TrEMBL record:
This is cytokinin dehydrogenase. One of its GO terms (biological process) is cytokinin metabolic process. Its EC number is 1.5.99.12. PANTHER family: CYTOKININ DEHYDROGENASE 3, GULONOLACTONE OXIDASE. InterPro entries: Cytok_DH_C_sf (IPR016170), Cytokinin_DH_FAD/cytokin-bd (IPR015345), FAD-bd_PCMH (IPR016166), FAD-bd_PCMH-like_sf (IPR036318), FAD-bd_PCMH_sub1 (IPR016167), FAD-bd_PCMH_sub2 (IPR016169), FAD-linked_Oxase-like_C (IPR016164), FAD-linked_Oxidoreductases_BP (IPR050432). Gene3D superfamilies: 3.30.465.10, FAD-linked oxidases, C-terminal domain, Uridine Diphospho-n-acetylenolpyruvylglucosamine Reductase, domain 2. Its cofactor is FAD. It holds the Pfam family Cytokin-bind. The keyword Flavoprotein applies. One of its GO terms (molecular function) is cytokinin dehydrogenase activity. Residues 64-244 form the FAD-binding PCMH-type domain. It comes from Gossypium harknessii. It catalyses: N(6)-dimethylallyladenine + A + H2O = 3-methyl-2-butenal + adenine + AH2. The keyword Kinase does not apply.
């Protein structure tokens, strides 16, 4: 069998172990028919449908299962704030968790006996691009926390722009990756996504709407970024933009010697200045192992004609190491991109 394991060139993550939001403490099941919930006009947006409950009780990791009492389908951030306020003012608060596409791995987007907030439902109510707005000076984009990064990319490309830092998989929500770290092969040079945020709008554990940045409500700003959803729910993020590349040179290098592989990777990582013209724009390493079908080692990344040779190398050595590198170029540099050291 051939199996692939991905190792970003630079890994940054924040692990928050102290829960400071009392609303996240689960004490008893939520009564979705409670008259106070009906009074704040949430009853029609709370679903107890078995399929919705089942979907909200699982995540990408498949390790943890926790069933909520209901799923909130908000049409605006005010719906989320109303739910949090109801829980906070309740004599026994219930758990609340925001869920985008559910790519958490240890149940961070679950709320046992509480309410899971389906953040993607807001995207359906922010039509005509209102959830993604590029600034007049084109230096940043204001993006709803429920938006997918693929939609952010498509919207900014219309202006010839793109965010600075990405995740490898773009069908994730903005609020979701900013609540973790947001890493990819660009992280070694540009930092994770949480290092590329100018400001955010956050709903706190007391249902307050606060705008935060490195200079305004900075403690909240740095707590929410990478905070695993424990310090507030992101409803808007201001993301810096830069000119999108005209083209990319994409190369995969294979090694049968681990020392040579890591030596080259470390050398390429060391050239990481944003103004360093020789620096790569993407660098990621992977292992190709004799433990599965070619599909498990991202065979689509290699020309089909090379598959037999790669399989032969893997069979011979047991493990093959791969560096995946990318260099951006434009009309001025397209003829010299192959000569970059």
């Amino acid at each position: 069998m051939v199996m692939s394991f991905q190792f970003p060139a630079y890994f940054t993550a924040i692990f928050i172990i102290t829960r400071v939001m009392s609303i996240m403490k689960i004490s008893k099941p939520l009564d979705v028919h409670h008259k106070d919930i009906r009074a704040v006009d949430l009853a029609t947006k709370l679903s107890v449908d078995p399929s919705a409950i089942e979907s909200a009780s699982r995540d990408f990791g498949g390790i943890v299962k926790a069933e909520p009492e209901a799923v909130l389908h908000p049409s605006a951030p005010q719906d989320i704030a109303a739910l949090i306020k109801f829980s906070y003012s309740n004599s026994v608060p219930f758990g609340i968790a925001a869920k985008g596409h559910g790519h958490s791995v240890r149940g961070q987007a679950m709320a046992e006996n509480g309410v899971v907030v389906d953040m993607r439902s807001m995207a359906n109510n922010r039509r005509n691009g209102t959830g993604i707005r590029v600034s007049i000076d084109r230096l940043y984009a204001d993006v709803g926390g429920e938006q997918l990064w693929i939609d952010v990319l498509n919207a900014t490309l219309e202006y010839g722009l793109a965010p600075v830092s990405w995740t490898d998989y773009l069908y994730l929500t903005v609020g979701g990756t900013l609540s973790n770290a947001g890493i990819s092969g660009q992280t070694f040079r540009y930092g994770p996504q949480i290092s590329n945020v100018l400001e955010m709008d956050v709903i706190t554990g007391k249902a307050d709407f606060l705008t935060c940045s490195p200079r305004m409500n900075s403690e909240l700003f740095y707590a929410v970024l990478g905070g695993l959803g424990q310090f507030g729910i992101i409803t808007r993020a201001r993301i810096p933009l830069q000119p999108a590349p005209k083209g990319v040179k994409w190369v995969r290098l294979l090694y049968d010697d681990f020392s040579s592989f890591t030596k080259d990777q470390e050398l390429l990582i060391s050239k990481n200045g944003r103004k360093d013209k020789s620096a790569l724009d993407y660098l990621e390493g992977s292992l190709l192992m004799d433990q599965g079908s070619p599909d498990n080692w991202r065979s689509s990344f290699f020309p089909h004609k090379d598959h037999p040779k790669i399989i032969s190398l893997i069979t011979k050595h047991g493990i093959i190491y791969c560096l995946e590198i990318v260099k951006h170029y434009d009309d001025r540099t397209k003829h010299t991109v192959d000569k970059v050291n």
